[in-house]
Design a protein that fits this description.
- A 7-stranded mixed β-sheet has the order 2-4-3-1-5-6-7, sandwiched between helices.
- It has 2 domains: 2-95, no CATH class; 100-248, DNA integrity scanning protein, DisA, N-terminal domain (YojJ-like (1, 3-Layer(aba) Sandwich), CATH 3.40.1700.10.
- The termini are far apart.
- The protein has 253 residues and is α+β, with helices and mostly antiparallel strands.
- The chain is 55% helix and 14% strand.
- α2 (33-52) packs antiparallel against α3 (56-76), α5 crosses α7 (150-156) and α5 (103-119) runs antiparallel to α10 (236-248).
- The longest helix has 27 residues, at 2-28.
- The protein has helices at residues 2-28, 33-52, 56-76, 78-88, 103-119, 135-139, 150-156, 188-193, 196-207, 236-248, and strands at residues 124-128, 142-147, 167-171, 174-180, 211-215, 222-226, 229-231.
């Protein structure tokens, strides 16, 4: 039995380390701190190599650099560290290892919400995250972290709601945030043809692989923008099929 424990002990340690490193990277994903974290990991790798092969000069330089970098990181990234610690308690670290919400369920809720918004001449902008992180845009809005509900989405896009002007982001099959600020296309030709929501969706589709759903309050129609491609005037059934199709589409396609 002791020999068996000694055999499994390194594997358990590797699994624990992988778990924490993975979630640390997820925590910083989409922020400028992620680049710093990657730089630190590279420096640590070089440091271990210098220790292994006894590179005296390189080892001395890296030790001095680490001593200075700790203070520099605390000063430069003080706001990010404070915000990260504040959000840490709210984050469910097990969510990403659990199965995401069933697309069949939350897509139906999205379709129902969009049809109702269009019928009532209300606009809406919904972004469904795929592979590219929408974390920076989530932070620009109001964190909600709720299951996808047609009633909730309709309430959010009601004109009297303070969040109705921004975008709503769905992440891992849940409503992550609303009132989010998306980039705006500045092409003058686009300005004549599209409204603010369409231009914001087009800009975001240029930067990410998110599925953007736009409900036009003027024309009372529903469109999808994905990778700068437009799918216009979609009915409920078409909208549902297209969202499910794009969710299954691989990033390189």
């Amino acid at each position: 039995m002791p020999n068996l424990f000694l055999y499994w002990k390194p594997m358990i340690e590797v699994i624990i380390l992988w778990f924490f490193i993975y979630h640390i990277i997820l925590f910083f994903e989409g922020t400028r701190s992620l680049q710093v974290l990657r730089g630190i990991i590279i420096l640590l790798f070089v440091f271990f190599i210098s220790q292994k092969f006894d590179f005296i000069v390189l080892d001395w330089l890296l030790k001095k650099l680490f001593g200075i970098s700790v203070i520099a990181i605390l000063i430069i990234f003080h706001p990010e560290i404070r915000q990260g610690l504040a959000q840490l308690g709210k984050r469910n670290i097990f969510r990403n290892i659990l199965k995401d919400e069933d697309p069949h369920t939350f897509v139906k809720e999205i379709v129902e919400a969009c049809e109702s918004l269009a019928a009532n001449k209300l606009g809406g902008l919904i972004a469904i995250e795929k592979n590219d992180s929408l974390a920076p845009y989530i932070q620009s809005g109001e964190i909600i972290d709720s299951r996808v509900s047609a009633d909730l989405m309709q309430a959010i896009f009601t004109p009297n709601n303070p969040l109705h002007d921004g975008g709503l982001i769905i992440q891992h099959g849940r409503i992550a945030a609303a009132g989010c600020i998306f980039p705006l296309a500045i092409n003058q030709e686009l300005n004549r043809v599209f409204g603010t929501r369409h231009r914001a969706a087009l800009s975001l589709s240029d930067e990410t692989d998110a599925i953007l759903i736009v409900v036009s309050e003027e024309r009372r129609d529903i469109s999808i923008i994905y990778r700068k491609k437009f799918y216009k005037d979609l009915g409920g059934a078409e909208l549902e099929l297209k969202i499910k199709e794009l969710i299954r589409t691989k990033k390189d396609e």
